Amino acid sequence: MAIPYNPYEPKPYERWTLRRMLDLQEDRFAEKGFWEFLGGEGAYPQLLDALEQAGIELRSGLDAYFGKYAQA
Q1: By three-state DSSP, how is residue 17 classified?
Q2: Which of these, 7, 13, 33, 38, has the minimum number of CB atoms within 10 Å of its CB?
């Protein structure tokens, strides 16, 4: 099982429903483990950096777009 995002960050991914179904050390990749499995060692921090840069560059456009809905 692969989980690309950890909503519990900074705590480890701990979904209680998986505990009995999977060996959480062997049968699942969450967050960093998932991205580094796909892209190799160092892929996860590179992805975070790319997403942060995209957020910085797109921030004003996103704020303007979603701001239209916040006024309603």
Answers
A1: helix
A2: 7
